[in-house]
Structure formats: C-alpha cells, structure tokens
Amino acid sequence: MEVSYYPGCSLHGMAVEYDQSVRAVCRTLNIALCELPDWSCCGASSAHFFDDELAVRLPARNMAIAEREGRELLVPCSACFQRLKHADKELKEDAARWIDGPYEGKAAIYHVNEFFDRPELIEIIKQNVKKPLRGLAGVAYYGCLSQRPPKITDAEDAENPTPMDNLMRAIGMDVRPWSYKTDCCGASLTLSRTGVVRKLSGNLLEAAQEAGAECLVTDCPMCQSNLDTRQAEIEAERGKQYNLPIFYLTELMALAFGEGKSAGWWKKHFVDPAPLLRGKGLL
Amino acid sequence: MLNDPATIDAPAIWPDSAFLTAVEARSGEKVSRCYQCRKCTNGCPVSFAMDLMPNQVMRMVQFGLEEEVLRSKTIWICASCQTCTTRCPNDIDIAHLMDSLRQLSRASGIAAGEEKVVKFHEAFLDSVRRHGRLFEFGMVGRYKMATLDLFSNIKIAWEMLKRGKLKFLPGKIKGKREVRQMFDKK
Ligand code: SF4
Ligand code: SF4
User: Fold this and answer.
1) Which of the four CATH numbers 3.40.50.720, 3.40.47.40, 1.10.3210.10, 1.20.1050.140 does domain A2-113 have?
2) Which residue from B31, B32, B170, B178 has the highest number of Cβ atoms inside 10 Å of its Cβ?
3) What's the pTM value of the predicted model, to 2 decimals?
4) From ligand 1's centre to the CA of B56, what distance in Å?
C-alpha cells in the first residue's frame, strides 16, 4: 500500500519523534510513505487569524500536489489535517479560484487515528503485535482539530471519538474512560498567554490522573508539546506531582510491534517515559 | 456586565445594524440568527480569560457596538478550538466569526486587546513567508524581539535544543517564491 505523506512543519522540528514513529509503524505494516514533493506550510493556526484567503491558498498548494500524486494522504498533525481538509472542501467547490488545473479530490485526507482505525488495518495491526502493552493504563487524548468542526473534519463523533481508543486496545493497553478526550490544551497560546495553557493543560493532567491513567496518548503535536514540555511548570504552579509521560500513539504502536526498544525517540520527551515502561517490562 | 442588574442605569443603546451588516458580509456568518442560548460560552475553554463572553460578542455585533467588540481581548484570546462552532444550534461558525472580527480589528487600526497574541501570529507568518515552511527557531527569536519578552521559556527552549527538537537552520523548498507570492498578492 502506497500513501502520500504530509509531515508538516512540526514533524520536521519539535515533533521529530512523531515523524520517526509514524515511519516506523508504516514500515511494519508495509505501508510505503511517499512524502509530498516540495510540500509547504499549510498556515496552521496563524494564517486564518489575519487572512481568510491565505488560509486557503497555503494548504491548497499542497492539495494540488497531492491531487497530482493521486494517492490517499496521511497527515499526522491535527492543525495541518484540519487546514488541508478545509482547503480540500473549498477546492471541490471552486478549484479555479485557488489553483491552476482541475481538482477532483483524488487524495482523500486522513489523520493518524482514523487512518489506522480501519477494519482492514486494525486486523493487520493486531497480527503485528509482538509484545502487547498489557497493564499500561492510559487515556486517549484527541484534542480539538482532528475532530472539530465536523463539517470540515468529517469526524464520526466529534464529542466522543473512539478511533484512538480502539487502536490503544488493539495493542493491548488498558484504556481508561474519561470525559476530556477533546478538551482544548491551549494550543497556539503557548508563547503569548502561557498561563492559559498551563491552566488548560493542567486540568487535563489532573483529569487523567483521576481516571487512573499512567500516561496520556495523543496524535497532535501541539497537545503533546504543551502537556509534555510544560508539565514541570504546571507541577510547580499547582504544587503537585503528575509525572505522566505524553506519548504519541505511533510511539506505542511501534513499541508493541517490537520496534520501539532501541528507538531514539524516548529521549526526546521532557517527562521521561523509560521508568514507566521499564516498570511494566516493556523496555 | 451586560447581565448585571447594577448596570441598568447605563445609557441606552440604540441598535445600529451597519456593523452587523458589515460583519455578516465579511464573514458570511449569520450573526443575526443568534438567540442567546449561550451554548458557545458554556463550552468555551478560555472564557475565564475573556473580557466578553462569546454570546456577548454576538449580541454586541447585533447591536452595533463596533468599538467595544473590536478592542476586546476576547477576539484575540479565542484559541480557535471550534467547540462553539461545533455546538451552535443556529449553525453559526463562531470560531470563523472571531477570525473575521480580528481582521476587522486590524483594518480599523484599533490597538489589539492582546498584543502578544498578534505578535506571535505575525512572527509565525513572517517565517512561512520567508522560507515557505515554518522555521521554529527563527520564529521564536523574532517573537521575542517583537515583544521584548526575552527571558520566558528560555529553559524549555534550551531543553528542546538539547533534544534536537529545535533546528538552527531553516528547511529549503523550491516553491519558496510561489509561497511568498501568496502573501504579497495584495
Ligand atoms: S451557541 Fe449560537 S445561538 Fe447560542 S448564544 Fe452562541 S452563537 Fe448564539
Ligand atoms: S473557538 Fe474560541 S470562542 Fe469558540 S469555544 Fe473555542 S476558544 Fe471559545
């Protein structure tokens, strides 16, 4: 199976371990990732602030490339996913306004959780689990933009999504129920209104702990970064210890496939996941 | 404020629909449909940091309180989480409306209610305009110079550098000029 791949700026920078683990998972599942040639930034959380047109033109350039490539398009970053989906819908409505050439929408866009949570892939995933992550208790944290708004994301259940829960179960995890799956972490306010991010991300850590989770599992680079890199500040502010590793879903899938042991990505984390994984006999 | 009985002596507001018409034309969002159910406000994760609640913004647009809306913190502090857009029973895309209000606020020359938020997005887009992709290290540097907020987050930046999460050089793409043209078009 060949799939086009739009890593986006984060996966080439701060979220490099997400990129590495997506590639590792796809290698195991025999999915060839073809990085979109000469892709550019989608404008993410910024372009739409100042300019509605720019907020379509930036992702539309990438969708035009994806259309020429003709394969399904895998987009691991939630912000990129939502902006590309938005552009795709605009292009289907009036391609000539945005790009040269026709546009049929040949490249169906998938975010990580919905891409892997397909009946045919879930079976292959289960077959490839060498070491089920038994006893590892975690919550699935989706954040905002892979789900909302559903008129853009086409999410099946934006208020209570389940694809990541299904995948965590497929690799043997103990998935804890909680009601914060799609609550906001504060996202791009991280530099400009850090206090807001500490409060929102702190609420998530608190709720995860209450749910009995030993870690949070996400597939959004902004969520991962806010919860992981700011956890020490949040602990200091609240006078509490959380010590909750924040995993990318794909890191744990690769671990269950037996690929994660020697992986360099655990060292990229601020909250060191090694003690927890070692304690479970998984590392 | 609007809900506080103590403000009952406040000067009467004479509704003026010019602003409502302008906002609806720009955004394509039917603000006039809002019937104050407050679902948007109740689900808003950052309402605690806002000076106007999202439902108040709607009512104030309907009443033509242009300046109050455009100088508010709310339009900048909205995190674009899309919860309100997802839940509004009148199908108003409130997150998109916030974008339109930000744009109107910038065009009007009113000082932004949250200067740092503006500087962040300017630094982000400047980086994309220059390189075609976001260059995180350069973006953070530019943001810090623009806000003179030099020392916050230094520890996190250092820890990221140590972990190879911040690159010193921007990525290169062939389509750089094509991307720049999108910015310079107007
Ligand atoms: S949810 Fe919609 S109708 Fe209800 S108050 Fe907000 S904008 Fe108005
Ligand atoms: S999009 Fe903005 S206004 Fe709407 S719920 Fe989210 S933060 Fe609040």
Assistant:
1) 1.20.1050.140
2) B31
3) 0.94
4) 9
